[in-house]
Amino acid sequence: MRLRTRPRTQASVRALVVLGAVGALLIGMLAALAGPSVARVPSGDTDSKQATATDPSVRQASHALRRAESIREDGAAGRDATMVLRDLANTRADLPDAERAAADALMKRPTSSGGDGYLNYGSVEEETPVCTATLCVHYVTSGQHASTPEYVATAVDTLTSVQQAYLTSGYRAVKSDGGLGGNSLPDVYLGNIGVNGLYGYCTSDDPSKSTQRWDRWAYCVLDNDYSASEFPTNTPTENLQVTAAHEYFHAIQYAYDRYEDSWLLEATAAWVEDELYDGVDDNLQYLRSSQLRSPGTPLDTFDPSTGFHYGTWSFFRFLSERFPEKKGLLPRIVLDVFSKADGGPGGPDQYSWKAVNSVLKKKKTSGAAMLGAYAVANRRPGQSYDEGAANRYPKAPAGKVTLAAGKARTVKVRLDHLTSRTTRLTPKRLATKKAKVRLTFDLSPRATGAFALITTTLRSGKVRTVKVKLNKKGNGAKAVPFSSRKVDNVEVTLVNGSGRFKCWQQSYFSCQGRPLDDNAAQQFTARAVKR
């Protein structure tokens, strides 16, 4: 779901509360026909243990239902209504009979009589849907959800363009819903959802209970006009474009695996909207909550309170600029990730971070290595990203240490998985040409994913980054030039690149797992010397 931050006026705060209520009503639209619990074992993932419908699964399902109901009733549980809907759909089968009936009662498409979903056409008769050869757009022409013929035509053209961009770029088509929308084509419904702060959403009412495959169909909902009174940023056409790109990508994702980790689903959907509509730049707002601002937050975090997962689109932008090979209109690296995450028949069914790592290993690198490179790049985003300077990407923070000759400083940190910490060292009155800074490292064992990068920035502007050679225990040393005549600064980036998890623990990290290497103690000592 696309939800963007607006200035926190009193009215906008009320709108965010209403937005939560929207989400729960939408959740109801998902739940009735859903399949197995979200806590499941991908068929192709040998790192995991078989999950069963035990008490924890029932508790998880009941929690999803309560979140859905609380959003509907009082706006609680927040901004990620789409993922709440998905979680309820995925766990519905584990609910006790009485609660399952409550979930089923929430499930209606906008065109269903008596539907409890947010977008409910009610007694207004739907017009004949506008269908192309590949999708259908549903609408009404009276009542609060009315659309004009001109807007419907624009929506059809935009959605068709988005759909074709994905298909020609190698992505799988949205699965057929068996005729629930009147035929087997993907369905998009238009309605006045902006009144409650929603731009759009895609959801799935696929009734499959298969535990051997995880691909599901989906349908989408977009606003009926994106009027400036409800959407003060961008033009109505721009909002339609980026919302269609983001939301329809969710429908594409579900054709691979509706049960995939939430952070990956939202980060890549935010990434692709800018790939298709580069001039809108709506996703720049998400960078305020990302590793460009918070490198100490795990990359695979899904956090409804901050929206951190949206800001993680910058990691996929970083990867697609490092590996720019295209298939069709899009960099193919994200397609490769979903090909590894594919939970359909015969798919590898790897969980999110494992899929990312598998793709990067084929490129003779790794997820951890790219995390480190991303951390270094985020210290100078204006130079590191194609649009970093023009779009004023935020600069990642760093500790600051000034060292004079003979002085030493020890820096101690604790790092969670898939995080980093950078410290900038600046020479003080070290004018001799042969001055050095000697760095000694005492990190976690190398097997836990710990490593260090040293980036030297010369006064000439030249930048060089090297990786420190460590032994198995995580110990190592490196000396680099530190003359104040030539060196502007030396930055030390400590990285916890661990991708090790105990999976299916109902977390919001990769494979819903418990990280095995969090809170890892890392330290280094820097000593400035004349030579």
Can you tell me about this structure?
With 531 residues, the chain is an alpha+beta fold. It folds into three domains: 1-206 and 231-238, no CATH class; 261-397, no CATH class; 399-529, Jelly Rolls. It has 13 helices and 18 strands. The protein has helices at residues 10-31, 55-74, 81-91, 97-105, 149-168, 236-254, 262-276, 308-311, 313-322, 333-341, 352-362, 367-377, 381-384, and strands at residues 130-131, 136-138, 187-191, 200-203, 219-223, 326-327, 330-331, 399-404, 408-415, 419-428, 436-442, 450-458, 463-467, 475-481, 487-496, 501-502, 514-515, 520-529. The strands form five sheets. The chain has a five-stranded mixed β-sheet with strand order 1-2-3-5-4, sandwiched between helices. A five-stranded mixed β-sheet has the order 8-10-15-12-13, with helices on one face. α1 crosses α2 (55-74), α1 (10-31) runs parallel beside α3 and α5 crosses α6. The protein is elongated and about 85 Å long. 53% of the residues are buried.
Helix content: 25-40%
The percentage of residues in β strands lies in: 15-25%
Please tell me the total number of domains. Answer: 3
Rg of Cα set: 25 Å
Largest sheet: 5 strands, mixed
What's the N-to-C terminus distance? Answer: 59 Å
Overall mean pLDDT stands at 88
Low-pLDDT parts are 4-39, 41-53
The side-by-side strand order for the widest beta sheet comes to: 1-2-3-5-4
Overall 3D geometry?
Answer: elongated
How many strand elements?
18
How many helix segments? 13
Structural class computed from helices and strand pairing = alpha+beta
